[in-house]
């Protein structure tokens, strides 16, 4: 290929990228669609610092896992005048799925990161998940590292975890131990496709939320865009923030078109 052809090709690629970025910026600017961010168990607000949508979207609200346990996202959804986009990580992904089952026509999009309909294993049905012993080990690991992350925080990234009060940690673990949303998901979305875009992100070797969770959710939402992330990082908001931003922008763009 001649140098001139290469430069012209690169110029077209750059122009297309700039056009796409301008379109995404316009979608953010004109969208009145709220974005609810549902944090993970023992997760810090700083987990989302690398995601630009948190500051660029006009109506973005973060719910901690304790606020989720108290039913605050449900109450917030009930008073909205229109649909919203849900972004959920880990336990927050479970909350997003629960909300989608209860309010399917109030959802403008789902962005699910290491989301699980059922955290715990169920050997009699072959469902791969955590054992109760492994779940308790997460608590011990958090205490031993004093909230510095289960496997260390990657250099240059904010700490996505925090050492919360023992009673809060216990309440979150009890939720994860008891929750199974599969029947509700299949009842709500088994007969008809979800009327909103769905994006799934899952690390290939996540030791907390098994990869089978994403495969199952893909059967519930066949139209979902499923992205497998190499490695074992569970804290995907610090791992793939740009991809999360693009997924949120896509949901907002669809909502803006009505």
How would you characterize this protein structure?
The chain is an alpha/beta fold and 258 residues long. The protein has one domain (33-257): Rossmann fold (3-Layer(aba) Sandwich), CATH 3.40.50.1820. The protein contains eleven helices and six strands. A six-stranded parallel sheet has the order 2-1-3-4-5-6, with helices on both faces. The longest helix is centred in the N-terminal third of the chain and has 28 residues, at 3-30. It is globular and about 50 Å long. It starts with a helix and ends with a helix.
Count of helical regions: 11
Strand content: 5-15%
Largest sheet: 6 strands, parallel
Q: Within the CATH hierarchy, at the fold level, what is the topology?
A: Rossmann fold
Quickly give the CATH architecture.
Answer: 3-Layer(aba) Sandwich
What fraction, in percent, of the residue positions are helical? 40-55%
CATH superfamily: Alpha/Beta hydrolase fold, catalytic domain
Number of strands: 6
User: How many structurally independent domains?
Assistant: 1
Average pLDDT confidence is 89
Task: Measure the end-to-end span.
Answer: 44 Å
Order of helices and strands: HEHEHHEHEHHHEHEHH
Name the poorly predicted regions. none
Describe the global form: globular
Order of strands in the sheet with the most strands? 2-1-3-4-5-6
Structural class: alpha/beta
List the keywords.
single chain; 11 helices; alpha/beta
Helix-strand layout with pairing:
Elements (H helix, E strand, L loop, with lengths): L2 H28 L4 E4 L14 H4 L3 E4 L1 H5 L2 H7 L5 E6 L1 H12 L4 E7 L18 H13 L21 H13 L3 H8 L8 E6 L7 H10 L4 E5 L6 H4 L1 H17 L1
Parallel strand pairs: 1-2, 1-3, 3-4, 4-5, 5-6
Helix pairs in contact: 1-11, 5-8
């Amino acid at each position: 290929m001649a140098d001139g052809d290469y430069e012209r090709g690169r110029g077209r690629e750059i122009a297309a990228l700039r056009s796409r970025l301008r379109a995404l910026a316009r979608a953010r600017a004109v969208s009145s669609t709220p974005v609810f961010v549902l944090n993970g168990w023992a997760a810090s607000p700083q987990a989302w610092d690398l995601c630009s949508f948190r500051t660029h979207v006009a109506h973005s609200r973060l719910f901690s896992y304790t606020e989720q346990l108290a039913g605050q996202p449900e109450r917030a959804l009930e008073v909205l005048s229109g649909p919203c986009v849900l972004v959920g990580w880990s336990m927050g992904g479970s909350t997003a799925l629960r909300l989608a089952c209860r309010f399917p026509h109030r959802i403008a999009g789902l962005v699910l990161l290491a989301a699980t309909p059922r955290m715990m294993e169920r050997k009699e049905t072959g469902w791969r998940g955590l054992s109760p012993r492994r779940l308790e080990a997460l608590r011990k690991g958090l205490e031993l590292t004093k909230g510095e992350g289960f496997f260390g925080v990657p250099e240059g990234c904010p700490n996505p975890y925090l050492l919360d009060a023992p009673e809060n940690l216990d309440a979150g673990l009890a939720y994860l131990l008891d929750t199974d949303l599969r029947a509700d998901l299949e009842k709500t979305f088994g007969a008809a496709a979800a009327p909103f875009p769905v994006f799934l992100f899952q690390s290939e070797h996540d030791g907390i939320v098994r990869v089978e969770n994403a495969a199952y959710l893909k059967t519930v939402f066949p139209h979902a865009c499923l992205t497998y992330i190499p490695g074992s990082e569970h804290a995907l908001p610090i791992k793939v923030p740009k991809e999360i931003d693009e997924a949120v922008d896509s949901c907002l763009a669809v909502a803006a078109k009505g």
